[in-house]
Amino acid sequence: MTTHVRRVVAESVVRELAHAGETVPWLAERAGITVKALQAKIASRRDFTVTDLAAIADVLGIPVSRLVPPSSER
Questions:
Q1: C-alpha–C-alpha distance, residues 44 and 21, integer Å
Q2: In whole angstroms, what is the distance from residue 47 CA to residue 41 CA?
Q3: How far is residue 30's CA from residue 55's CA, in Å, rounded to a whole number?
Q4: Nearest to 68 by CA among 56, 25, 24, 59
Q5: How far apart are CA 63 and CA 59, in angstroms?
Q6: Residue of 4 and 71 predicted with greater confidence
Q7: What is the pLDDT of residues 25-68, one digit of tens each?
Q8: CA–CA separation, 60 vs 40, rounded Å?
Q9: How many angstroms separate the first and last alpha carbons of the chain?
Q10: Cβ-count burial 40-55 (b if 16+ within 10 Å, e if not)
Q11: What angle do CA 45, 65, 27 make, to 5 degrees?
Q12: What pTM was computed for the model?
């Protein structure tokens, strides 16, 4: 994952989490990601995996496509 894509995905997760009115610990627990790992991913220090994104989208009740940039931006 490039730095740009990592940043766009992190921003999308933060935006969707805020839209849901929930917190990072809430999302981490429900998505099966440790709080520390999710914080590192949101800070763009680590990549989100496909499994992470699928779990996050499922918890937030949104399609995964809302978390990733369109192919023209990758």
A1: 21
A2: 6
A3: 8
A4: 56
A5: 10
A6: 4
A7: 999 999 999 999 999 999 999 999 999 999 999 999 999 999 99
A8: 19
A9: 9
A10: ebbebebebeeebbeb
A11: 55
A12: 0.91
Q: What gap in Å lies between CA 72 and CA 35, rounded to an integer?
A: 31
Among 52, 69, 61, CA closest to 7: 69
Phi and psi dihedrals of 42, rounded to 5?
-65, -30
pLDDT of residue 3: 87
More confident residue, 2 or 13: 13
For residues 31 and 49, give the distance between their C-alpha atoms in angstroms, rounded to a whole number: 12
Q: Which of 28, 4, 24 is nearest to 14 (CA)?
A: 24
Q: 69 pLDDT band (50/70/90 cuts)?
A: confident
